[in-house]
């Protein structure tokens, strides 16, 4: 599992990468009240805005961490956005992406490096 | 940040796990461990204790009739007719008919007790001093201000002094609490029954702890205070009302009693009377309304409003918006042209470059629970 400076986690699952936000990020955002997801099948480039999350405090964007195709999104979040805060590493995942260039994963932090960054 | 002012309950907030943020020059609790959503819901279900000590507390002293008439020269509001022991909402207006601040004032017999917004406090005190010759304008700097709000507020406060059960909405009286003489009003800014308690600062922590020890009372931060007042359809100064919005545009005409309107015994004679009386007679060009986004995305302050999905010209702006934890949907307020202000009218808002439908809604979003 890898981590971005924008507090996303990236978990390889077969030839796809599952993307969500870290517990640290979920805690900072506060209660999450709205999630807007991309459509499955969307081609994205690294750093494209692809998810909008609204907490009780503010709106935030989640950027695509990799070039590739969004293959599946977590539709359950539309009606139950609170899952992001309750289980950010599990049921609160946002989308799966099939990377165009899997070596882009190498640019991201390990869990130890991420823990260092937030501590 | 070093010049942020800490208030008497600062240490208690930190002990209770508050996240402290700068607000109007003060370090204030925005939320506690429970978080904004739970704090909001708890206040509507039980009782919440808010520290609002940053707000300005001001005494107006002098001959009571002269003080009332002098205050009426600054506000389109009936001050003279307010009975002793009663509180009322008021608005300081400017010469253009805009709003300098909104406030609560109470007739305390030999003086008026006024509570103003923290961000406007210094300006208000200067304005009142300059605009009311012969009236002593005294800022109270040795008292904290607590708000206890929610259906459980009466029982919690009555446990400390049962006399408060005799008070009804907008009554004000002295009440002994934790050995201190407190100035208590049955009012608040959440749409719930409750009390606001001005307490000598040396007794503030004892009183706050005694209230938090009652069944069902939790500390609530400014985050939930904002979503509670928004669901209750109440204005936040500097956002929903400001120097440019008139009380008529802001749908605050209920705060302008008949006696100050055209034909009344003390009609006019307040700053901006020309515009305000004209708008009362002819109707304003735009009006503050409730706005219910049809989707789930909150639409916050600054979101542009349009007549429909295709219209090019902006017709208004959202002035407050959030997710409403009680209504379980996004809720907003904003200004729209008067011909689009009827509840049920569907207009369009532009959020992140996309238009989405918004329905003009009746305020409040949640029914008020006052003890009339």
Automatic annotation (TrEMBL), chain A:
The glycine cleavage system is composed of four proteins: P, T, L and H. Belongs to the GcvH family. One of its GO terms (cellular component) is glycine cleavage complex. The glycine cleavage system catalyzes the degradation of glycine. The H protein shuttles the methylamine group of glycine from the P protein to the T protein. Keywords: Lipoyl. PROSITE patterns: BIOTINYL_LIPOYL, LIPOYL. Its cofactor is (R)-lipoate. The modification N6-lipoyllysine is found at residue 57. Binds 1 lipoyl cofactor covalently. This is Glycine cleavage system H protein. Residues 16-98 form the Lipoyl-binding domain. GO terms for biological process: glycine decarboxylation via glycine cleavage system; protein lipoylation. It comes from Pseudooceanicola nitratireducens. The keyword DNA damage does not apply. Pfam families: GCV_H. InterPro entries: 2-oxoA_DH_lipoyl-BS (IPR003016), Biotin_lipoyl (IPR000089), GCV_H (IPR002930), GCV_H/Fam206 (IPR033753), GCV_H_sub (IPR017453), Single_hybrid_motif (IPR011053). PANTHER family: GLYCINE CLEAVAGE SYSTEM H PROTEIN (PTHR11715), GLYCINE CLEAVAGE SYSTEM H PROTEIN-RELATED (PTHR11715:SF3).
TrEMBL record, chain B:
This is aminomethyltransferase. Substrate binds at residue 196. It is an enzyme of class 2 (transferase). Residues 286-365 form the Aminomethyltransferase C-terminal domain. Pfam families: GCV_T, GCV_T_C. Belongs to the GcvT family. It comes from the Bacteria. SUPFAM superfamilies: Aminomethyltransferase beta-barrel domain (SSF101790), Folate-binding domain (SSF103025). GO terms for cellular component: glycine cleavage complex. PANTHER family: AMINOMETHYLTRANSFERASE (PTHR43757), AMINOMETHYLTRANSFERASE, MITOCHONDRIAL (PTHR43757:SF2). Residues 10-258 form the GCVT N-terminal domain. The keyword Methyltransferase applies. One of its GO terms (biological process) is methylation. The keyword Signal does not apply. One of its GO terms (molecular function) is transaminase activity. Keywords: Aminotransferase, Methyltransferase, Transferase. It catalyses: N(6)-[(R)-S(8)-aminomethyldihydrolipoyl]-L-lysyl-[protein] + (6S)-5,6,7,8-tetrahydrofolate = N(6)-[(R)-dihydrolipoyl]-L-lysyl-[protein] + (6R)-5,10-methylene-5,6,7,8-tetrahydrofolate + NH4(+). Its EC number is 2.1.2.10.
